[in-house]
Specification:
The protein is α/β, with parallel strands linked by helices. The chain is about 25% helix and about 20% strand. It has one domain: 2-Layer Sandwich (60s Ribosomal Protein L30, Chain: A). Helix 2 links the parallel strand 2 (about 65-75) and strand 3 (about 110). The longest helix is centred in the middle third of the chain and has 19 residues, at about 40-55. The protein starts with 17 loop residues before the first strand and ends with a strand. GO terms for molecular function: magnesium ion binding. InterPro entries: RusA-like_sf (IPR036614).
């Protein structure tokens, strides 16, 4: 006796949303190493949040997501990934402002450690990319 599997319901994994934003910054707008007045820093944070909010308005409510920040650089200057965490934080807050996720706590957002990748100028200009990917709840 053989089983007929053609009538069983097929469970298809839903399509997960993913998008990447590219920002033309060759230098990090914020860094843990920058020595700036707190009002100047707050102004830049507000600009980054507003920029991400405006860009993310087309993203549906994801419920839960993973975010990744990559700084593409064209020189071999030593840089620490930890120093660009303030950029990641401001962009994540912008996603919350755009109501892509409820909050930027681990329950709703998985934040990957930022990465810095060298690429020769002839292949790609220096920039930042910020990828938002839906994660199954």
């Amino acid at each position: 006796m053989t089983a007929d599997y053609s009538t069983l319901p097929v469970r298809v994994a839903p399509e997960l949303f993913s998008t990447t934003f590219t920002f033309p910054w060759t230098k990090a707008p914020l860094s843990l190493n920058y020595q700036m007045h707190k009002m100047q820093e707050a102004k830049i944070v507000k600009e980054l949040r507003s920029l991400m909010h405006a860009e993310a308005r087309r993203i549906p409510d994801l419920g839960r997501c993973r975010v990744e920040l990559v700084w593409w650089v064209n020189s071999h200057t030593r840089r620490d990934e930890e120093n660009i965490v303030p950029v990641l934080k401001a962009l994540c807050d912008g996603l919350v402002d755009a109501e892509v996720v409820e909050d930027d706590v681990p329950r709703f957002m998985v934040k990957m450690m930022p990465t810095i990748i060298f690429v020769p100028k002839k292949e790609r200009l220096a920039c930042f990319t910020f990828t938002v990917t839906q994660v199954p709840s």
